[in-house]
Prior knowledge:
Layout: E1 5-11, E2 14-20, H1 22-34, H2 39-49, H3 55-67
Antiparallel strand pairs: 1-2
Helix pairs in contact: 1-2, 1-3
Amino acid sequence: MAGLKKRSVNLAGHATSLALEPEFWAVLERAAADQALSLAGLIQKIDLERGERPLASACRVFALSSAALP
């Protein structure tokens, strides 16, 4: 895998940066498109459902579970 790619997103009115491998970003972008959401909208949804898990970890878990779907 390539190095981390950092992006800034606005969550609940606060800017935050998120660093993920490009492969995870690609899965998240595809999942957002499939759900008719912006990438920021999908990350906000993940953020609201992540519990105590760090956001980057929650995004990776989401991407892995999304990639496993047919």
